[in-house]
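Key result, reporting period 2: structure in, sequence out.
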């Protein structure tokens, strides 16, 4: 018999050990294990996306006024905010950024920090373009622009994947 532990809205085996040996028991145990792993994975992704959306909301609420940084930063533009929301809606879960930061010119940047001083920043300014700056190491750098009309260009997806 399989011992079940009660977790919020979900029952899972208390341990990987089971005593059933029939084909049916093995099938049920495997189905429960796979369901729980999928639930964990989905919950983890949802928490990460929710965290990034909360981070974006916080940035929006704090940076919509002139000089939000205590100096002369421009307020975030409604177009940049819209692009940032669309970006979060279309980026694959496996490529989510490490952080979101406001930019003093009124844009919003998504940042990935890789290993060995590698980093990538994608900036959205409400101009239907993604500006990127990538540092691959002490010498190698790259920057440029790509169109952003609601779908991520394959170049940008490939670029992000180098920093995950």
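The corresponding designed sequence is given below.
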């Amino acid at each position: 018999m399989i011992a079940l532990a009660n977790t919020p809205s979900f029952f899972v085996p208390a341990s990987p050990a089971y005593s059933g040996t029939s084909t049916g028991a093995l099938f049920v145990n495997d189905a429960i294990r796979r369901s729980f792993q999928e639930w964990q994975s989905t919950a983890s992704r949802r928490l990460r996306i929710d965290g990034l959306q909360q981070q974006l909301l916080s940035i929006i609420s704090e940076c919509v006024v002139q000089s939000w940084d205590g100096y002369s930063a421009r307020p975030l533009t409604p177009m940049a905010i819209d692009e940032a929301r669309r970006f979060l809606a279309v980026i694959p879960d496996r490529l989510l950024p490490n952080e979101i930061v406001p930019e003093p010119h009124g844009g919003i940047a998504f940042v990935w920090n890789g290993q060995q001083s590698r980093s990538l920043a994608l900036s959205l300014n409400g101009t239907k373009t993604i500006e990127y700056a990538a540092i691959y190491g002490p010498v190698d750098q790259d920057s440029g622009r790509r169109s952003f009309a609601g779908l991520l260009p394959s170049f940008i997806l490939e670029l992000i994947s180098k920093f995950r």
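The longest helix spans residues 23-62. Residues 128 and 148 are 5 Å apart (CA to CA). This case is discussed further under Risks and Mitigation.
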